[in-house]
């Protein structure tokens, strides 16, 4: 298996809902493991929280996430976004439509001065996304 770089997102108790939402956006296989699945050492109220989740799509996208571990502070940041880019305009517009639904659009998906279509939004879970549809080079 090749080395891969992918986002790993910590959620404030709603990792299951968020990762299921992303599965609805991107498709693929979602594996969710709760604290109860791994056994031992967790409080009963944490049993159903997600200790590790991984979404893998047929197109090669991987997204991982979990609920913030018990005893740790959930600190969402504003210095990271998940970027989707490529030339398959229909696929990327479909992702954009689903990600921005119920979220907040900060830059509408539209043609930009560099020639590509680009948009930025925060989805309903507060995760920032950038979508860039590249103009094929001639």
Automatic annotation (TrEMBL):
Residues 5-131 form the Glyoxalase/fosfomycin resistance/dioxygenase domain. CDD domains: PhnB_like. Signal peptide: none annotated. Pfam families: Glyoxalase (PF00903). PANTHER family: PROTEIN YJDN, PROTEIN YJDN-RELATED. This is VOC family protein.
């Amino acid at each position: 298996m090749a080395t891969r770089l992918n986002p790993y997102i910590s959620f404030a108790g709603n990792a299951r809902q968020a990762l299921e939402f992303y599965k609805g956006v991107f498709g693929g296989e979602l594996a969710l493991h709760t604290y109860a699945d791994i056994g031992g050492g967790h409080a009963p109220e944490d049993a159903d929280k997600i200790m590790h989740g991984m979404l893998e799509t047929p197109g090669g996208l991987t997204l991982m996430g979990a609920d913030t571990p018990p005893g740790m502070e959930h600190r969402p940041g504003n210095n990271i976004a998940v970027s989707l880019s490529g030339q398959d305009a229909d696929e990327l517009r479909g992702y954009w439509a689903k990600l921005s639904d119920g979220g907040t659009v900060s830059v509408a998906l539209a043609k930009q001065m560099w020639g590509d279509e680009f948009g930025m939004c925060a989805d309903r879970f507060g995760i920032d996304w950038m979508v860039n549809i590249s103009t094929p080079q001639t």
